[in-house]
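[step 3/7] fold_predict: job queued, chain A
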Amino acid sequence: MVSQGRFRSENKAHLNLFCYSLLFIMMTLLTVTSYAADLSVSGTTMTIDSVRSQVQNSHASGSTTIDAANGSLFTPGSTVFIITMQGSNIGQYEFNTISSISSNTLTLQSPLTNSYDSNAQIIEITVYDNVVISNSGILTCSAWNGSTGGVLVIKAANLSVDSTSFIDTSTTGFLSETGPGAGTSTTSSYGGGGGAYGGDGGDGYGSRAGGTGYGLIHKPVCMGSGGGRNTTYNRYGGKGGGIVFIELTGTATINGVVRSNGQNSPDNYTYNGGAGAGGSIYISASAIAGTNAVSYMEVNGGSNNNTGYYGGGGGGGRIALHCPAGTYSYSGYFKAFGG
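[step 4/7] structure written:
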C-alpha cells in the first residue's frame, strides 16, 4: 500500500510555499533476529545514543575495520549502527558488531556493505526485547553537533508507545545554514530561505531561495536541513528535524506520538532566518498497530514565525512504514506540512 501527499502552505499576504511530503506504507518481509533486554521509558525523557563517534579516514566496502574519532567509547561485542549523515552517500547505513578494538580502530564481525568516510558516524546501540514508553515518557536523541547526533535508533522485538507518550527527534537535525537542502542565507534587509528535505523550503523575503528536497522516498534516513541565516542582523535559521529509525521483528504499537519536526525561525523579528525542515520517520516491523484515533506521526517544517520581512518556512519531511501485507492496523494519522 502506497500513499503520497502534496501539501501547500500559504501566507497570502507575504509568502507562497510549495512543500512536497511523502508518506509510504510498504509491505515487506523481515528477517528473524535474536534479542535480549528491555527498555522502559516511564514519566521521563531519555536519550539512548550516548556512545557515538565520527568516522575517521575512508573505508571501502568489504573492509572489516573502521576508524572512530574516539574508539575508547565503544565496547567489544556491541552492536553498532553506521550511517552517512551528509555528502554524496547521505542516508546509507548498516548494522554491524564490534569484534575487537585497538586504539581508535574497530574490527567488525562482518565486512562493510557500504563505503564510509568522515561524513559518517558510528552509534553503539542496545538490541532490546521490548521497548515500552509510557506515562508521558519521551524517547529522543542527542542533537546534531556537526559530526554526530541527530539519530534515534530503536532495534528490538516489540515497541509500545502509550497515548500519553512520545518518540521525538524534533529540531535535532542540521543546524542553521547547513544540510544538502539548506535555505539561502542573506545580508541586509531580507529573510533567509527555508530548509528543505521531503519538500522544498519556502523563499525568504527578497526572493532568498529556500532549499531543494532530497533523500529516498521508500527508506527515509536523512535529517532535515537548516534554514538560511540573516548575517547582517545575526539571526539564525531554524534547525531541521532528526531521524527516527525503528527496526522490529515483532509489533510496533503506536497509541501516542512519533514526530521529528523542524524548528521555527528562532527570532520573532523582521529580517529573520528561515525555518528548518521536518526530519525522517522510518518504521519496519512484522506488524504496525494502534487503536488511538488521535495518535499521529508528524514531520512538519518549521514556521517563519513572523508576518513582516520574513524568512521562508521549512519543507515537510518524510515518513515510511514497512510491514507485511495484512498486518497494518494503525488508526492514527500523518502530518508532513510545510511551515
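[step 5/7] annotate
The two ends are 27 Å apart (CA to CA).
Confidence is low (pLDDT under 50) at residues 1-32.
exit 0
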